[in-house]
Amino acid sequence: MVDNLARVDDYNDSELEVVINEAPVKWCSVSLSEMINRGKRLEASVFDVDAKQAWNLINSNKFSVVPIGGKNGLSNSYTCGRFKRVWVTKSEFPIFQPSSIVDVKPSPDGYISKKTKVDIDSLRVHKGQILLTCSGTIGKVAMVSNTLDNAVFSHDLLRIDCKNPVDSGYLYAYLKSKIGNKILITNRYGAVITHIESEHLSSVPIPNAPNEIKEKIHNLIVHSYELRDASNALIDEATKLLIDELHLPPIEDFDAKYYQKNVPVETFNVKLSEMNGRADASYHVPIVNAIVEHMKKYAEKVTTISDERISSDVILPGRFKRVYVEDGFGKVFIGGKQLYELDPSNKKFLSLAHHEKRITQQLELHENMILITCSGTVGKVALVGKQWENWTANQHIIRVVPANREIAGYISIFLSTDYGHELIKRFIYGSVVDEIDDNHVRQIAIPILKNKKVQEKINNLALEANEKRFEAYKFEQEAIKILEEKVIYAK
Questions:
Q1: φ, ψ dihedrals at 71, nearest 5°
Q2: Cα angle 47-48-54, degrees, rounded to a multiple of 5
Q3: Residue 429's beta-bridge partner residues?
Q4: Measured between alpha carbons, how far is 139 from 469 in angstroms, rounded to an integer?
Q5: How many CA atoms lie within 13 A of 390 on its CB side?
Q6: In what order do the strands lie in the sheet with 130-133?
Q7: E-strand spans in 107-167?
Q8: DSSP H or E segment with residue 218
Q9: pTM of the prediction?
Q10: Cα 478 from chain centroid?
C-alpha cells in the first residue's frame, strides 16, 4: 500500500499551522520480479502507482480495447528523418519546433533555406493530423487545424493519421486525458518511456467506444480548434489595424541610427544625459529610439505602462518556497513556458493552506490581466482569459492590471507585436539569466492612438478573441469529460 497523503517540509515560520486535506490513498501490488528488476528497491516512489492503475483501468474497460497504432490499430503514424538545417534570416520556409504544437497561436522558431538537404514538403503537417511530441518532453498533443495546416516542423515530432477521420478527435481527447496520457508515456509496469517511436503506439491500448460516442467527442474537439482558428484571425486583424494606424514599417526596415553601418559590430553614440543609469549597450540600442520616435509622429501621445490611463497596478511576486499538493487540493499553478497554451500541460497545484495570503495578494490571475515573462525567456505576453480565472502563476511572470476593460485588449495587442517586444527587451539585465522587473515594465512605452474608434476596435477584437478561446477551452473540457464518464470510467 502506498501512502499518498500530502506532506509539508519544515517551514521558516514555526507558528504556521498547515492544514492539508487528506487525498485518497493510492495503492498497487508489486510482483517480486518487478522489485528485483528495479534494483531490489522497496520504496513506493520507484513504482508509478498512477500508471499501473491506469493500465489496469483501460485493460478492464467495458468496451473492447484496440491499439492506437499498428496494423490493427486506429491510426498510422510516422516521424521524419534527421537533417541538418541551414538557417537564414528570412525565407519562405518558416520552421516550428515540436514544443510549440500546444500553443494557441504558434510562432516559428526561425527560417530554413531551400538549400537545406531535405524534402521540405515531407516535413509539413496537414489538417486533421494529430501531432505528438516524442522526445524531450514527450506526450504533448495537438490537432492540426487551419492555423498549422501545411506548416513545416522539425523531424522529432510524431505525425498520426487516423484510419477513420472520426477517430481523430476521439484519439486526441484520449491522449489529452490524464489516464490516456499516463498510459502513453509509461509501460504497463509504470516505467516512464523516454522516447516514443511509431512502433510504440501499437502497444498502447485505447477503448474502442461506439461510433456515436466517438463522433460526439470528435465534433467537440473539431469545434474547439475552429474557435482557436477564429481567435487567431481576430488577433491578426487587430494587429494589422494597429500597425496601419501607426504606419509602422516591418521591424527590420526601421532606420536605426548606427554610428557606422555595414560593419561586423554595431556601434552608436549615447549622450551622458540619456544614460538613465544604464551603461549596458542593449538598453540603448538605436532601434528602440527609432520605434518610439516613429510612434510619436502618428500617435496622439506616447506614454508608459505606469500611466493611470493604461494600468492600475504592476505586480511582481516575491520568491518563495512552494508547497505542492494533489489535484483538487490546491490552486492551479503555471509557469512562463505554459503562457501560450489554452489548457496548460503539466499543471501543478499550490497549497492553499500554506500560501493563501501570497496567492490572494500576488499570485492569483484574473480575467484581462496582461502577463509578461520576466526571467529566462523575457517578453512573452498573454491576456488572461476566463479559463484561467483564479489560477496562479509563478514569480517569473509580471502581472499588469489594466486600468479598465476598455484598454486591456489594446495593451496586449501592442506588447505582443515585434515593436512591443523590442521595447520590453531593452530593459533586460543579467549576465547569465535575462531578467526585468516591475519597475522596468512600468517604463515600457505604449502609444495612445489619435483615432479612438480604431483603438476601441483593436481592444474589442482582442477581447473577442479571448472569449473564443474560452469557448474553445469549454468544448475541449466537455469532450474529455464525456470520454471519462462514458468510456474510461464507464461500468
A1: -60, -40
A2: 135
A3: 435
A4: 22
A5: 4
A6: 75-78, 157-162, 130-133, 141-143
A7: 110-112, 130-133, 141-143, 152-153, 157-162
A8: helix 211-245
A9: 0.89
A10: 20
Q: How many CA atoms lie within 13 A of 188 on its CB side?
A: 9
- pLDDT per position in the chain (491 positions), as tens? 444 444 344 334 434 444 444 445 666 677 788 778 767 777 665 667 788 888 889 999 999 999 999 999 999 999 998 899 999 988 999 999 999 999 999 999 999 999 999 999 999 999 999 999 998 888 999 999 999 999 999 988 999 999 999 999 999 999 999 999 999 988 766 677 788 889 999 999 999 999 999 999 999 999 999 999 999 999 999 999 999 999 999 998 887 776 566 667 777 788 888 888 888 888 888 889 899 999 999 999 999 999 999 999 999 999 889 999 988 889 999 999 999 999 988 899 999 989 999 999 999 999 999 999 999 999 999 999 999 999 999 999 999 999 999 999 999 999 999 999 999 999 999 878 999 999 999 999 999 999 999 999 999 999 999 999 999 999 999 999 999 999 999 98
Q: Which residue has the cell 464525456?
A: 482
Name the amino acid, one letter, at 58: I
Nearest C-alpha neighbor of 313 from the set 410, 391, 403, 408:
403
Q: What is the CA radius of gyration of the chain?
A: 25
